Amino acid sequence: MEVAFRTKKLEKCYRAVQRDYRSYSDLAIPPGEYLAEVLKAKGMTQAELARRIGRPVQAVNEIIRGEKAITAETALQLERALAVPAHIWTGLESRYQLIKARIEEKKQLKQESTVASRIPYKQLAELKCVDQTRDPEHKVRELHRFYGVSSLANVPETRTYQASFRCGRGREASGYALAAWIRCAELRAAEIRTNTFDKKKLRSALSEIRSLSLTPPEVFEPRIAEILAKCGVAFVLLPHFPKTYANGATFWVKTDKAVLLMSIRGKWEDIFWFSLFHEIGHLVLHGKKTFIDDDGAVPELADKEKEADEFATNALIPPGSFAEFIRRKDFTEASIKTFAREIGIPAGVVIGRLQHEELLGCDSDLNRLHRKYIM
């Protein structure tokens, strides 16, 4: 039946449903408006329609006002009473509800743009994790896809990222930025093939990993990745994200696959190698938990952070050898180089340890022995 539509908008909505129209529109017209047009064309009152379909007049009136949805059952009743196919009624209703939801979504996207501003979008785009865009709505949609959530408000409640928000609590670090860093590593790790995690194999590989500290980044980076993959660990190296202040992290993507994430923040060799062994320490000592090591330990994890620190310290420089070295109290350049050569690590790592122990000043001219990595 052809109906003389009261408005062009209503006709456009009707034609869209007839074509099984799927593209988004902001034209939210309740199907009750079309029902009113049909009744007018037939010269039928709401009361008469109510009697024909066996429904209260109030129910028909609520449908026309857009207060009551047209169900599949009602659509079939209208098809029989008005000779308008049921799929037209359900299509109009479905489209109306979807457009209303889209309008609400646009409001949500606008509200979430404030949260999005706390996320290092530029860095994610440079790593091709999200689209390059300046449009706030597009950014939020991309971040939904990136995190795998329907709202950015759900990110702190997602188990994978909860540790990020513990670390960001009460300090300058941003939980959202840390979660972005972790998520980016998670995506990278998915592309890395590893064996089943083997703690004993990882412990056995420590000596070989340590020996790589004498090689340049172009040598040690792929080799570390290869060694760790054989031990069931995906090694991911990412740039430092603003407001993360993290040197490294460990987490699990499967029960038999760990991720060791490193930032090249600082780029100094002693920081890099200490952080690497600190993260390995978590994997060896602390089971399948998430650890993010930033500038301040989460209080409830302080003991585990201390254990990982001791693990890294002793793995890099044997305690007995270091005790004998400092007993001599000779911290000249020649002495440090000789000691570093004897234990097989860079002089810069030894200098970093001496400065940490406050046996050597941070402004010492021996800082020139520190290597700064370009990675």
The class by helix and strand makeup works out as: alpha+beta
**Can you tell me the CATH superfamily of the domain at 8-112?**
lambda repressor-like DNA-binding domains
Q: What is the level-2 CATH architecture name of the domain at 8-112? A: Orthogonal Bundle
Shape descriptor reads rod-shaped
Straight-line N-to-C gap: 71 Å
Got a strand count?
A: 4
Rg, rounded, reads 32 Å
Main sheet attributes: strand count, strand direction, barrel closure: 4 strands, mixed
Mean pLDDT: 88
What percentage of amino acids are in beta strands?
A: 5-15%
- The count of helical stretches stands at 18
Low-confidence stretches: none
CATH structural class of the domain at 8-112: Mainly Alpha
Order of helices and strands: HHHHHHHHHHHHHEEEHEHHHH
- Looking at the structure, the CATH topology of the domain at 8-112 is 434 Repressor (Amino-terminal Domain)
Detailed description of the structure:
The chain has a domain at 8-112: lambda repressor-like DNA-binding domains (434 Repressor (Amino-terminal Domain), Orthogonal Bundle), CATH 1.10.260.40. The chain has a 4-stranded mixed β-sheet, sandwiched between helices. The chain is built from 18 helices and 4 strands. The protein has 375 residues and is of the alpha+beta class. The mean pLDDT is 88. β2 and β3 form a beta hairpin.
